[in-house]
Amino acid sequence: MKTWTIAPTKNQVILICSLMTFLFLRLLVISDFLTSDRFSNRQYLIFGILMMTGLAISVVSIVIYRAKGIDKSN
Question: pTM for the whole thing?
Answer without folding.
Answer: 0.73
